[in-house]
Amino acid sequence: MLLQKLTAYADHVAETLPAEFYREKQIHWILDIAEDGAGAELRDRRVPAKARDQALIQPVPYVQRSGTKVPPYLLVDSAEFVLGLPKTADKAAGPSEKEIAEAERRNAAYRELVLRWADGQAGDARADAVRTFFTSDALVRMKKDLPDIDAKDTVALMVGTQFLHEEPSVKELWALVARERKGGEVGLCLVCGEYGALLATIPEPVKKGAIPSAGGTNEGQLVSINTSAQGRNGVMQLANTPICDRCGARAMAGLNHLLSRPGHHHRMPGEGVMVWWTRENSEDTLEALLFGGEPDPAAISHAISVLHKAPDPVAGQLVSPDDFHSLTLGLNNARVVVREWLDLPVEQLQANLGAWYEDHGVHNGWTGETQYVPLWQLTLCMGRASGDRYVKDTAPHGMQTALVHSALHRAPLPAWVLPRLLLRIHADARVDAPRIALLRLILNRSAYPEDHLMPTLDPDQHDVPYLCGRAFAVLEAIQRAALPKLNTTLRDKHFRTAATAPGTTLTHLRFDAMAHLKRLRRDNKGAGIALENRLTEIFQGIDHLPVHLTPRQQARFVIGYEHQRADDLAARRARKAEKDARKASDEPTTA
After folding, report:
1. Going by C-beta distance under 8 Å and a sequence separation of 6 or more, which residues neighbour residue 256?
2. What Å distances lie between residue 484 and 456, 479, 508, CA to CA?
3. For 61, how many CA atoms within 13 A lie in the half-sphere containing its CB?
4. Looking at beta carbons, which pairs linking 355-360 to residues 24 or more positions away fall under 8 Å?
5. Over the stretch 437-489, which tens digit does the pLDDT of each residue have?
6. pLDDT tens for residues 279-316?
């Protein structure tokens, strides 16, 4: 199924893909052969590391090669193959006899392959020039005065004004050579269901560095069986996984295209990479909804309307019958690890993302609007807070992957997330929008009905932990109103104990609040009476203060605390707006 979808994607974007068995590589040197083949000039195309955007990068012949006696590529290869320049392990001592012999072997194999192409091009002046150059002593003479070139540098051949590897005849021969090297028997392909030449090994790996990994940035094979323990009945390579040469090449070309295409992959350092596409290769909203800097409000509104199956006229036109596919990959040495494969209708994806935002949206008491937190902030808020920011790389490993899985599958988060989040809230004494959003997401996807709370203050909610959180917010408001210049608040000193063991903490804090209320009744009678009535009303709903709260109950405590604060903020905003309106109406008008 996976290889079928990748092959279908490659067919959709065939015009943008390199030629068969070609891959983009940086060209460091150009071997410009004279039109008569009597000599050549090496032109340096290397660029400094900071000028990578100026590098010469082109699709060139490529298949994966391994072992000690590796074969050459056609025309474009390393200087060791093209010029016979030996690799040198010990720069001071120079190349060893073994290194010189291997360079000569590789150069001979390269020349043989080049001549195979040139001999097949009767009447082609450029092929004649290449044949003359590699069959005469021109290369030997040129090697006597080589510039500072490394054996690993990539060298491309040119005659006149055009690279030879761009010729159709070169592409045709290279495809034949690649099939000869990677081909197996003729049989039924599991991907396309047709009889054809089967592969012994996949010709193209995932590009080096395309999958972030803590263990290195090797190339990786999506399908690889090179030990008897891995294959069925001890059979190695692809004998038990028949894939034809076309499907194998197209699937890997499509995957590498996705890994390099902006808006269709997302790297999660240390956790892998995710790629996605749609069956009809249409635009999707995953980048705007999940991985962008800030969520697109229009896309969120559309996703939520799809979720409720009652889209407005504009959103209804956006519902697509297309299919969405995503693939999450990791790397284990030189093998690609498929961590997750998702295949579902685009409409279902949009509904899942609509549920994701509806489950974690946070009401902003000051603006009166719902705030939707981007995924990157939900990841960061699991880390350590320092001032107004979160410290980079302190979030637990696997957090971003867990969030992505929850969003795409409409699934609950792993059980370890809530205890870790509560530890960070208690340690930092910080409750902000990202952490409240994450708590809401955890609770709304819980199997327990008491965890499913309203997005704003619910005066009819009689859950004791929720009421305890509201009570703590009112106690904090009483302290702030009575002592506005106080540097250390109740949250700084008592939030952790109140959220874990409210029985003792809230009893003491309520007793201490009597002195603050007395002061308020003297200095600000209206505020004092309102706060005291609010506190009394909340405590009347609590039959008994619990001695200890479980992690889920602690989460409801924090939500109750934040709901009460947001409601108080909204009330202050309403009073300010009313005051400004009265002030505006009392001002005299001028003619």
Report:
1. 23, 204, 206, 207, 210
2. 26, 8, 21
3. 32
4. 355/307, 355/410, 356/406, 356/407, 356/410, 356/441, 357/289, 357/295, 357/300, 357/303, 357/304, 358/304, 358/307, 359/440, 359/441, 359/444, 359/445, 360/437, 360/438, 360/440, 360/441, 360/444
5. 999 999 999 998 889 988 888 999 999 999 999 999 999 999 998 888 888 88
6. 876 665 677 788 877 877 888 888 888 888 744 444 44
